[in-house]
């Protein structure tokens, strides 16, 4: 995904997200999981500079500064818990990358929530997999052949 160009009036074109965050109890463990899952999708971990908030990790596409995916120790100091009905869905460049991300996620502490495969009820060319990260956050990896040209 590329950053939208600036408009003539100085405002940035609309994008849906600036960032998505999930909580973690153990950042090192979360980092290993997300490094393994997000690398096949072309996302890289970037340095997070301290802003006075809790420790965090961040991933971003190489070609664009936004959107970003963050994993934080919760701001309130309470243990991280997974949201019921919440998930982060990551676009994949191919069906093979969906399979690789899913396999790597399982190998790095994730649990199965739906093996890689077509999901025709979501659209022609929709191919995805579901996992939970080590903290229970639901993760969806999806290749949208129906929308990609």
Description:
The protein has 149 residues and is α/β, with parallel strands linked by helices. It has a single domain, classed as Roll (2,3-Dihydroxybiphenyl 1,2-Dioxygenase, domain 1), CATH 3.10.180. The protein is built from two helices and eight strands, in the order E-H-E-E-E-E-H-E-E-E. The strands form two sheets. Strands 1-4-3-2 form a four-stranded mixed β-sheet, with helices on one face. The protein has a four-stranded mixed β-sheet with strand order 5-8-7-6, covered by helices on one side. The longest helix is centred in the C-terminal third of the chain and has 13 residues, at 95-107. It is globular and about 45 Å long.
User: Helix content range of the residues, please?
Assistant: 10-25%
Structural class: alpha/beta
Overall mean pLDDT: 89
User: Which architecture name does CATH use?
Assistant: Roll
CATH topology: 2,3-Dihydroxybiphenyl 1,2-Dioxygenase, domain 1
**What is the string of helix and strand elements?**
EHEEEEHEEE
What is the total domain count? 1
Strand order of the largest sheet: 1-4-3-2
CATH class: Alpha Beta
Looking at the structure, what is the overall shape? globular
User: Quick one: biggest sheet?
Assistant: 4 strands, mixed
Number of strands: 8
Instruction: Give start-end ranges of low-pLDDT stretches.
Output: 1-8
- Fourth-tier CATH superfamily name: 2,3-Dihydroxybiphenyl 1,2-Dioxygenase, domain 1
């Amino acid at each position: 995904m590329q950053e939208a160009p600036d408009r003539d009036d100085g405002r940035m074109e609309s994008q849906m997200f600036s960032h998505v965050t999930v909580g973690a109890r153990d950042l090192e463990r979360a980092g290993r999981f997300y490094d393994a899952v997000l690398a096949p999708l072309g996302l890289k971990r970037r340095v997070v500079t301290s802003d006075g908030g809790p420790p965090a990790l961040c991933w971003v596409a190489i070609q664009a500064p936004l959107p970003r995916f963050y994993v934080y120790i919760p701001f309130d100091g309470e243990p991280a818990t997974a949201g019921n009905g919440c998930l982060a869905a990551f676009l994949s460049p191919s069906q093979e990358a969906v399979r690789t991300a899913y396999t790597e996620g399982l190998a790095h502490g994730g649990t199965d929530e739906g093996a890689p495969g077509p999901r025709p009820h979501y659209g022609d060319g929709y191919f995805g997999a579901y996992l939970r990260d080590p903290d229970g956050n639901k993760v969806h990896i999806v290749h949208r052949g129906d929308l990609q040209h």
